[in-house]
Structures are given as structure tokens and as C-alpha cells.
Specification:
mainly alpha
Length: 118
Amino acid sequence: MVRGFAILLLLQLLGEVLSSSLALPVPGNVLGMGLLLLALNFKLVRPEWVEEAVNLLLSNLALFFVPAGVGVMVYFDLLAAEWLPIVVATFLSTFVVMAVTGWVALWLERRGGRVENE
């Protein structure tokens, strides 16, 4: 598990370094996930090396939302003043994401790829 966390943290660090040094508008942790994807795809990292660490993080995923939820309380006045645009944007974006996901799944099925439910 230590190796898995070391790999994940190293890739996140590389993503942060890339993001800040190249002044990219993408967060470093997102670049780190992309680097992990590339490392797994090119067989630089074996899935079993990170599997235990990833499963531990995913099993405790709800805990990572606590700081964000507490941080929202700082902007309670803004949320109270602008609740209608926020609710409308939330509903519209949810339906747009569902529609685009459905269209992409249909497109992939028609291309001959299989979409599997897990």
C-alpha cells in the first residue's frame, strides 16, 4: 500500500509542478490523474501496485467532501442572495451532462464498442 500511495503522490506532485511551471489553467491534481492514466496505459505502473491505495481512498471518499461542505458555509450570504441562478444552473448542467453522456454512449455503441454496466 505504501508503494501505491507513493506512486499516487508522486504523480500528483508532477501534475502540480507541470500546472504551476507551465501556467496551465488545469489543476495539478487533474494533470496528476492524467499522468496516472498514461502511466497505466503505457504499462509504466501496474494496476496491482496502486489497487490497495486506490480502494482505501475510494472507500473513504465521503470524508473528502467534508472540507468542501464546510467551505461552502463561508459563502452562505452569497448563496442566499443568488440561490435561484445557482439552482437553475445546477439542474440545467445536470441534464446537459446526462444527455451528452447518453449521446456519447450511443455513439460508442454504434462504432462497435461495447458499453458494459459494472
